Amino acid sequence: MSPEEKLVAKTLAESLKMDFIDLETAPLEEFQGCALIPVPMMKSKCVALLNIDMVEKKMTVAMAEPNNADTIMFLEMMTGMKMTPVVATKAGISRAISICFESPVEHQTQLLHKLDSIAVKASSEKEVSFADDSLEQMLGDLGENDAPIVRLINLILTNIVFKHASEALVEPTPTKLLLKVGSGDAWETIKELPIGCYDPLVRRLRLMADWPFDKPSEGESQRFRFMQDNQAFFFRIINSSTPSGKEIHILRVE
Q1: Do 135 and 57 fall into the same domain?
Q2: What string of DSSP letters covers 50-77?
Q3: Which of 23, 65, 72, 146 is the most buried (most CB within 10 A)?
Q4: Rounded CA separation 62/135 (Å)
């Protein structure tokens, strides 16, 4: 980043009465929110999602064009959180994205663990482990340049396909979130997650299924497509209420 670029960004921040953040020197823990949306989306909109307040449902977003109301509105729809924009340079934003998703896998795993701990803290529940393997093993190469929440959904849909199951179930309980696949009465729990992961998972599923956020959350979604090994598979989402919250059924359809 050139001194001129930083000076222009600081001047813009002062004129808009916003904070400036130097992402050229910011530590990895500042980039928590980058795990919530896909890399191409952040690159195209030139933003980096930063600190998350799960309790207040607020997030800081670094932007080269912080007065772009359309981008802010889009990010709030994507994440379900109120955005607080700060000014950053394009070079700084590129560095943040690169550190999170194009750096060694231990950096990505560290970020994922940080996001996990935030969700656990927000839910005021004790920490729930990711079952029998690490986050790195769990997500594997299911879209290495995608946000973790996208990779997690890829994991669910891939399990339905390869286990020849008819559906998956996202089941909230008072203390954790269960991910199951099965057919009929035969169910297998494939992952246990912190209950704080429920909201971002549901928001992403609704976006994939083109289920507008202004429509009721009860009912059935449109059919959506998932590509696996150059083959198309189709799914539909159905919500149902339980004492612990809304269960999400992801049905495989033809």
Answers
A1: no
A2: EEEETTTTEEEEEESSTT-HHHHHHHHH
A3: 23
A4: 26
Contact 35, 115 (CB under 8 A): yes
Is 109 among the domain residues? no
Could you tell me if residue 147 is inside a domain?
A: yes
- Tell whether 29 is covered by a domain: yes
Per-residue pLDDT tens for 224-236?
Answer: 888 877 788 999 8
Could you say which DSSP state residue 197 is in?
G
Residue 118 lies in a domain: no
Q: b/e string for 86-103 if b means 16 or more Cβ within 10 A?
A: bbbbeebbbbbbebbbee
The pLDDT value recorded for residue 248 is 87
Q: For residues 206 and 166, give the distance between their C-alpha atoms in angstroms, rounded to a whole number.
A: 19
Query: Where in the sequence is the domain holding 47, given as residue range(s)?
Result: 3-103
Q: What's the pLDDT tens digit per position in 191-227? A: 888 777 787 788 778 777 776 544 555 567 778 888 8
| DSSP assigned state of 81 | S
Domain tally, the chain: 2
pLDDT score at 40: 76
User: What CA–CA distance (Å, rounded) separates 193 from 207?
Assistant: 21
